[in-house]
Design goal:
alpha+beta, 7-stranded antiparallel beta sheet, 7 strands, 23% helix, 20% strand, globular
């Protein structure tokens, strides 16, 4: 049986906004290519623009360390892979025109001891798998991507021990998105930022994250 770090997929989750109390008010508007520490390549930035119908976004800071609130950064995401959920670096992206208080996207990374089987049977017909990393899936509420990336837990305070994989999870409320390619666009976004995380973590050659996500 896989560890608890794998058991619950964000693709079936009903929300990621339980951590909104850890977020600050959205800040200065930015374009799609600048959000999440500039982690979106050109296809991912275009995918975000399609999902939002705009190129004006705002970000909120999250609990990136145990002691302070900080803006999302790729290096912080790698540094805190082994932390408890609320202590991991998170990127919240909001549309500037949306007053609902809910993010268009919420992205987090965590160390994982395993990953779901690619061959497992899923009765939910609203989930789509992609040949990305070890396991990648998009569902109504977001996407999950597991890739090989050995990391060691810090000597003190680690919530998760040494692991062989990293889990990327993206929460995206369906009511805030638009377009005819929402599944593919969300995977393009999650793959792009995962490639950046893998590079910083030193596991890009093992991660098996393609430059171009195949269309399903």
């Amino acid at each position: 049986m896989l560890s608890l770090t794998v058991a619950v997929l964000f693709t079936g989750a009903c929300g990621g906004t339980s951590d909104k109390e850890a977020a600050e008010s959205p800040g200065t508007p930015a374009t799609a290519s600048r959000v999440c520490d500039g982690a979106f390549d050109a296809p991912a930035a275009e995918a975000l623009r399609r999902l939002a119908g705009t190129d004006r976004f705002e970000e909120s800071a999250g609990a990136g360390t145990r002691d302070e609130t900080t803006a999302f950064s790729l290096r912080n995401a790698v540094k805190h892979l082994h932390d408890a959920y609320r202590q991991r670096s998170a990127c919240w992206v909001y549309k500037t025109s949306d007053d609902s208080g809910e993010p268009l996207l919420e992205i987090r990374f965590s160390a994982s001891q395993g990953y779901p089987s690619k061959t497992r049977k899923d009765s939910d017909t609203d989930k789509v798998t992609y040949p990305v990393g070890r396991f990648a899936q998009v569902g109504p509420n977001g996407a999950d991507l597991f890739f090989q990336c050995p990391t060691k837990a810090p000597a003190e305070g680690a919530y998760i021990g040494d692991t062989e994989y990293v889990k990327a999870e993206l929460f995206s409320p369906p009511g805030h998105m638009r377009g005819d390619s929402m599944d593919h666009d969300r995977m393009v976004i999650l793959n792009s930022i995962s490639r950046k995380v893998a590079h910083i973590a030193g596991c890009a050659s093992q991660a098996d994250l393609p430059a171009v996500v195949p269309t399903r």
